[in-house]
Design goal:
The complex is a heterotrimer of chains A (about 775), B (about 70) and C (about 525). With about 70 residues, chain B is an all-alpha fold. Chain B has one helix at about 1-65. Chain B is rod-shaped, with a radius of gyration of 31 Å. The N and C termini of chain B lie far apart (about 105 Å). With about 525 residues, chain C is mostly helical. Chain C has four domains: about 1-140, no CATH class; about 140-255, no CATH class; about 265-400, no CATH class; about 415-530. Chain C has 23 helices and five strands. Chain C has helices at about 5-30, 35-50, 65-75, 80-85, 90-110, 115-125, 130-135, 140-160, 165-180, 185-205, 210-250, 255, 260-265, 280-310, 315-335, 350-370, 370-395, 400-410, 415-435, 445-455, 470-475, 495-500, 505-510; strands spanning about 440, 460, 485, 515-520, 525-530. In chain C, helix 1 (about 5-30) packs antiparallel against helix 5 (about 90-110) and helix 8 packs parallel to helix 16. The chains are: A alpha/beta (about 775), B mainly alpha (about 70), C mainly alpha (about 525). Chain A: It is an enzyme of class 2 (transferase).
């Protein structure tokens, strides 16, 4: 004990010194920062003053030589398109000055206004009353020469010519616009691009804005969404909107009609727009991400667990069973047992058939290296990657590395890191990493429910990609995954809305639990899931690496933020709308839960989630039957019920078996009349074995395939642990009984915790493989 | 018993201190971020201003060298 | 090639009809069918039609699969009595398996790019080898076992080629488990297979992917492969023992019971052929060699092909050698211990294993050298023909193959007479039981199966597989047994439960049993009466 104290003491004093050091560092940094800012401000002011002086000097020079000035004016007027000799290309302000329409002082004032509020200089000059609009228009008409964007950037001094040429070469092979390529190559900043675009298009540039003003000018969210524009300032005669891609005349016209004001647009970078959206429409977007499904398809939302009719139904069933038990408890139990046995048997057989289907080579969509290489990168669409995370900032560097490994043109990536508002640490860590611009941090505002599906919904609202995929923070997708999915979508029928990549674990060697988990996933994703897709019944999706068509996903109402297993639920809803899902032969590696209690919590949550999903979709069984068809209906019943029910029933029958051997009590055999006895025995002897054996064979299969592809993250040594699968079943039973117990004991408390988000991190590991 | 509660107490203190330390480290990170942000913004501005300055110097020179009479 | 795709199936169908016709001809018209075959049918008969139908009645002496598979066929028995009484159900089963085996072999040959005519000749020489044809038609378990072994070896050679590697392994696993449910020889065969897996994986440790990953990889891969290939068989064995334990109270009941093979072979030392072999390794080896010779001829073909290919001392060949030797070596051991009858049918397996292996070997030869391939093919066909001839010769030799000799000379066989007697007894018993529907008759099905199969009033019988048989045997009076039927305690009939329980019951009866009728001094029927005094 003393040693313990000593140890603690050492720790304490170490901590104390660290804290003191950190405090000092903070002070020092604060001072430094302030000094730096001061210096920088001074420097900038200095430069600005120099520039102002330069204008005045020019004016001075001109007025000193009126003759020359006249000549210059003439030159500018006459040679509308050519710049005067020895002159650099002139900007509008400089033209105004050289033409003598405006003096240096006025010009500087305009420039200052532009610095603060943005907008076009000409417009400002008009507004200040220095010149009139026709004059400006004349100048523009005469002198404006539209330059290529790259050229514009080179002229602006942001880009060197050889850099531009390199970027152009990249564009040849990758496609896409040059701006995004330059940004993805980190040659220019988004702000520089936007500025160049504004100049190129003769529009204003969003510089700074007053939040209050913007809030006052706010357009209805639907309008803003439709035009992808946010009003910055609005008066009776003008409305300035910020856009990241210029609207065409028609759209401008429409918008002007809607708001009954002439519209002027200024350009903002997509990142600035994102910030604006976040500031201005946060509430609406939050509302959309939590309430949309509930409002539009209340029948599909899990915001309410039990409907009134369901409660009545359960009570009635309870009463009937109780009455039957009173009438003749023995027959009732026998009948219940027979029903359960038949159900059990059909589930076992179904599962086995699915596995058989899954072993077919074409159950997964496969591509070879050649096909991947042959992809014309110019044809690749913009791809959105959503990465929801909560309190996992430590894995961010790894995440960035993993996503960087993706073999996909970076200028066509729209990576959205979805960070909860209160997860300050992640926000700071992400900022400190100076991520390339295709990483966008989206901060999810506070609000209930605080769940992963809500975060995803929020991130999806402004997703720009044609396809969208979710990865967890610790995921390691195969580099070729996006391209494979692109090909898979191309060669799949139109109604294929989702492509699921296979999930597996990289930490299978850690302990027995991760080994079990890896085996479970290997079998699920390599054999069962492809098999289920062959049969074409509703599939509980995996929570990550499912790639969607963005428009379809949005149309469906995306994820249900109130559902614990939103992935399973979405699978059913996809099926309801006649969309199909397929499996592509590409993997994403994740980290398996390695601690027993965590595993139990997680698993019981999943089981609850499955029950919840079942309850949601079984509110109107007949309607569901109509929507899904016979096969889909029973498939859904199988998928949703087998996971919670099998582990719940297992212990009952195992204990019956033990009891029978221990006591040879006749009443036990009496529960298994006639053929049911043999059915139960076959299940016990054959069924259980077959599951263990498929587990072994499935694991072997996966490892074998991997080694053939020279991948070594799984070992053949994993196979032997499949013999211990019954231990895993016992664990599942514990988890399912826990879930059931919670449901019975405090159904409403359950609802609260389900919606309330009660654990450290998002429960991100997938729930489909029960 | 005494040692036991002493250990417990120490443990609590350690946890508290660790928490505090984490907060401080977070602050440091935030400050560093702020510095980096300011720096980036500053550099962008400077680059732009310098480009403008160069541009104006050129114009000035252009004005200086503008031929007194134009012969095409 | 695709034109020939269906031909194996046509061939199989024709073979099935031929085997079945031959079998029915032997059983129905010639009244010849091996007792073991009928006994297996009887076991499944008890399951369906005894006084207390339950699956456990299938018995725990024979391996259960042949009887299990007969059950669905016997469901038709009420409409076709001969299915059971003449053992036709068993014949249907073996004919099916004979056909299936030939299809397997045929398809393996074609898949391994053998010319069609050659394959056809090959399969003909296999299926119409006198021994295989006979066993395809006589309801014994051998044909099933042959089929599973064939399946195993074909899967093994597929695995050697590393195509569909995992699937092949799974096939091996299930085939081995089924084989274990058919005959106990699977244990040594399985061991040889396990050894072969090791040899192959070890020999490949420096090739391909294995070279990069070192010894741990090889070990893990080996272990994993063994699990897949052996687990079904291991599990089957465990379950079999567990069932023996749960129902018979002894996990090794199938080995140790009164009726087991071991018990039956106790009298062997007096047997003129087997007697001298016991305890003498020289004689044992000679005995085994003599009977194995006809079946080893095709192995010569493999050897020659290997020499042509210059691949004699290779892992694959070593595997074949071990697989081949496994079952005969077990026979050597058993004969030496005096625990085997040394029937000819115990020595046929090397023939099957070699033939299942040959397609693989021939394909390799063909890929290596076309001209040598023609030579190899010819040698194979010649040796197969020679094997067929010598097999036929051995089967016609009473010393080498007493069972098959009996089958060929069925008219001299004693089976016919005993079958007729059984029918007579059955008719008489039926009459008695029909007259008194409350009467019951106790008999041990171990010897009485033929009578049971011939009877109609089976619901009044108390037979060995009934759960209350022991109780009723121990106390026939209070358990209301009406009749007891016992065989004369000669040879294995001494193991009859009644004879074991009550000494010299056949001769003297007991105080509670009064002799009612004697049938040809083979069987006696006793009527149970109240004993004079209460001490037994």
């Amino acid at each position: 004990m003393n040693i313990e104290i000593w140890r603690k003491k050492g720790q304490l004093s170490r901590l104390d010194t660290e804290i003191t050091a950190n405090r000092e560092k903070i002070q020092q940094l604060t001072i430094e920062n302030n000094e730096n800012k001061q210096q920088q401000r001074l420097h900038v002011q200095e430069l600005q003053a120099e520039i102002e002086a330069a204008y005045e000097r020019i004016e001075q020079k001109l007025s000193e030589e009126p003759h020359k000035w006249t000549l210059i004016k003439q030159w500018i007027r006459n040679n509308a398109n050519a710049d005067p000799p020895d002159f650099p290309p002139l900007r509008i302000g400089e033209r105004l000055l050289l033409l003598g329409l405006i003096n240096a002082r006025q010009l500087n004032k305009c420039l200052e206004e532009q610095r603060i509020h943005g907008g076009r200089l000409g417009d400002i000059a008009v507004r200040f009353g220095y010149v009139d609009r026709s004059q400006i228009q004349d100048i523009i008409d005469q002198s404006f020469k539209r330059l290529l964007l790259g050229e514009q950037l080179v002229r602006a001094g942001y880009l060197k010519r050889d850099q531009l040429e390199e970027a152009l070469r990249v564009q040849q092979s990758v496609g896409g616009d040059i701006g995004s390529i330059l940004i993805s190559m980190n040659l220019i900043t988004p702000a520089q691009l936007t500025e160049a675009l504004a100049v190129q298009n003769q529009t204003g540039r969003l510089m700074a804005y007053n939040k209050q003003e913007v809030m006052n000018a706010k357009l209805p969210e639907a309008v803003a969404q439709r035009f992808k524009a946010i009003a910055i300032r609005r008066s009776v005669d003008q409305c300035i909107i910020a856009v990241d891609a210029l609207l065409n005349d028609e759209a401008i016209h429409q918008l002007a009609q809607i708001i009954d004001t002439p519209v002027t647009q200024v350009l903002a970078s997509p990142w600035e727009m994102e910030l604006l959206w976040d500031q201005i429409y946060q509430e609406e977007q939050l509302h959309e991400s939590t309430e949309k499904l509930k409002k539009e398809q209340p029948e599909n939302s899990a915001s309410q667990t039990f409907t009134f009719a369901q409660i009545i139904c359960m009570i009635v069933i309870g009463i009937v069973i109780a009455a039957a038990l009173l009438w003749n408890w023995f027959y009732t139990l026998v009948i219940i047992n027979v029903v359960i046995q038949l159900m059990y048997f059909s589930m076992t057989v179904t599962k086995f058939i699915m596995i058989l289907y899954g072993t077919k080579e074409n159950a997964q969509i496969r591509f070879n290296a050649k096909q991947i290489q042959d992809i014309d990168e110019r044809a690749l669409p913009l791809y959105t990657i959503l990465v929801p995370m909560y309190k996992e900032s430590n894995v961010v560097p790894q995440l960035v590395h993993n996503l960087d490994q993706l073999d996909y043109p970076k200028n066509k990536l729209d990576i959205r890191l979805l960070i909860e508002k209160d997860d300050i640490e992640a926000q700071e860590v992400i900022q400190s990493l100076h991520l390339p611009s295709y990483f966008q941090m989206i901060i999810i505002p506070e609000g209930q429910p605080k769940t992963k599906p809500k975060a995803c919904n929020y991130g999806l609202i402004r997703a720009r990609g044609k396809y969208v995929v979710i990865y967890d923070a610790e995921d390691r997708p195969d580099p070729d995954q996006l391209k494979k999915v692109f090909l898979a979508f191309q060669q799949s029928p139109e109604h294929t809305a989702c492509i699921q990549a296979k999930l597996n674990y990289f930490n299978s060697r850690q302990n027995l639990l991760t080994k079990f988990f890896t085996q479970e996933y290997s079998n699920w994703f390599e054999l069962l899931l492809p098999g289920i897709m062959q049969i074409n019944i509703p599939i509980p999706l995996g929570g990550t690496s499912n790639h969607f068509k963005t428009d379809v996903l949005k149309k469906l109402g995306a994820w249900d933020p109130y559902n614990v297993t939103e992935d399973a639920d979405l699978g059913i809803r996809l099926y309801k709308q006649n969309y199909t899902t397929r499996v592509v032969d590409s993997r994403t590696l994740e980290e398996a839960n390695s601690r027993f209690m965590n595993w139990i919590h997680q698993r019981s949550r999943w089981i609850k989630g499955y029950m919840q999903t079942w309850l949601v979709h079984m509110r109107h069984p007949i309607k569901l039957h109509q929507e899904l068809g016979i096969k889909g209906f029973w498939g859904a019943q199988f998928m949703l019920l087998s996971s919670p029910l099998l582990p719940m029933l297992n212990p009952i029958f195992w204990s019956l078996l033990v009891l029978w051997y221990a006591t040879h009590a006749g009443w036990i055999t009496a529960f298994f009349p006639g053929i049911i006895y043999y059915l139960a025995a076959a299940q016990l002897i054959l069924g259980n074995f077959l599951f263990i054996y498929t587990n072994i064979a499935g694991t072997y299969w996966v490892v074998h395939e991997l080694y053939r592809k020279k991948e070594t993250w799984l070992s053949y040594g994993l196979v032997r642990y499949a013999l211990l699968t019954p231990i895993y079943w016992a664990m599942m039973s514990i988890a399912s009984i826990k879930a059931l117990w919670q449901l019975i004991r405090k159904p409403f408390y359950w609802e609260k915790t389900v919606h309330g988000f009660d654990q450290e991190r998002y429960d991100t590991t997938k729930s489909n493989s029960l | 018993m005494l040692t036991y509660s002493a250990v417990g107490l120490k443990e609590m203190t350690v946890a508290q201190l660790q928490d505090e330390n984490r907060q401080l480290e977070l602050q440091i990170l935030a400050l560093k971020n702020e510095r980096a942000r300011a720096r980036a913004r500053y550099e962008e501005t400077i680059k732009k201003l310098q480009a403008t300055r160069e541009h104006l110097l050129q114009i000035e020179r252009g004005v200086d060298h503008f031929p007194k009479d134009i012969s095409k | 090639m695709s034109r020939n795709k269906h031909i194996p199936y046509y061939f199989g169908s024709i073979l099935f009809i031929l085997e079945l016709s031959f079998g029915i001809w032997m059983a129905h018209w010639n009244h010849f069918i091996p007792g073991d075959a009928v006994s297996r049918v009887a076991n499944s008969y008890y399951v369906l039609f005894s006084r207390d139908p339950h699956l456990g009645a299938i018995g725990f002496v024979w391996n259960p699969l042949p009887s299990l598979l007969t059950i669905p066929i016997l469901l038709l028995n009420p409409w076709c009595k001969v299915l059971a009484s003449e053992g036709i159900a068993g014949i249907i089963l073996t004919a099916l398996f004979a056909a299936f085996t030939s299809v397997l072999l045929f398809k393996a040959l074609l898949r391994r790019k053998q010319p069609f005519l050659f394959s056809f000749a090959f399969v003909l020489l296999f299926s119409f080898n006198p021994f295989l044809f006979l066993y395809g038609s006589n309801g014994m378990s051998e044909m099933l076992f042959i089929c599973f072994i064939m399946f195993c070896i074909i899967a093994f050679t597929d695995w050697l080629d590393e195509k569909r590697s995992v699937t092949s392994m799974i096939m091996i696993g299930f085939a081995l488990a089924l084989a274990l449910l058919t005959r106990y020889e699977s244990v040594v065969f399985g061991a040889a297979l396990a050894l072969s897996l090791f040899i192959i994986i070890w020999s490949r440790r420096r090739k391909g992917e294995a070279a990069h990953y070192g010894i741990a990889y090889t070990y893990n891969k080996w272990e994993a492969s063994e699990w897949i290939a052996l687990l079904p068989a291991l599990y089957t064995g465990i379950i079999w023992m567990a069932l023996n334990w749960a129902i018979m109270g002894d996990g090794l009941f199938f080995l140790r019971s009164n009726y087991s093979n071991l018990a039956q072979s106790e009298g062997l030392s007096k047997n003129p052929t087997i007697g001298p072999v016991i305890g003498d390794y020289g004689n044992t080896l000679l005995f085994v060699a003599e009977r194995s010779l006809p079946f080893l001829l095709p192995f010569l073909a493999v050897l020659i092909i290997r020499i042509l290919r210059r691949r004699v001392f290779k892992a694959g060949f070593l595997c074949l050698f071990f697989l081949l030797m496994s079952i005969p070596l077990m026979q050597v051991y058993m004969l030496h211990k005096g625990a085997s009858y040394g029937w000819l049918r115990f020595f046929v397996y090397p023939f099957v294993i070699t033939l299942a292996w040959l397609p693989y070997e021939l394909q390799k030869l063909k890929e290596q050298a076309r001209r040598l391939y023609i030579l190899g093919g010819c040698i194979t066909l010649i040796l197969l023909s020679a094997s067929a001839y010598t097999t036929g010769y051995a089967m016609n030799n009473e010393r080498l193959s007493p069972e098959e000799y009996q089958a060929i000379h069925y008219k001299k066989s004693a089976t016919y007479a005993s079958n007729l007697l059984s029918q007579k007894i059955a008719e008489d018993l039926d009459d008695r039981l029909r007259m008194d529907s409350h009467a019951s008759l106790l008999l041990d099905s171990f010897n009485g199966f033929q009578i049971i199969l011939d009877m109609d009033q089976t619901k009044q019988l108390i037979i060995t597989s009934d759960l209350d048989f022991k109780k009723k045997l121990n106390d026939p009076v209070n358990e209301h047994v009406t009749y007891i039927l016992v065989p004369k305690p000669d040879g294995v009939a001494a193991l009859n439960a009644v004879n074991e329980r009550y000494k010299s019951f056949y001769e003297q009866g007991a105080d509670f049993a009064k002799l009612d009728k004697t049938y040809s001094d083979q069987w006696r029927l006793y009527r149970v009466v109240k004993p004079m005094n209460e001490n037994e």
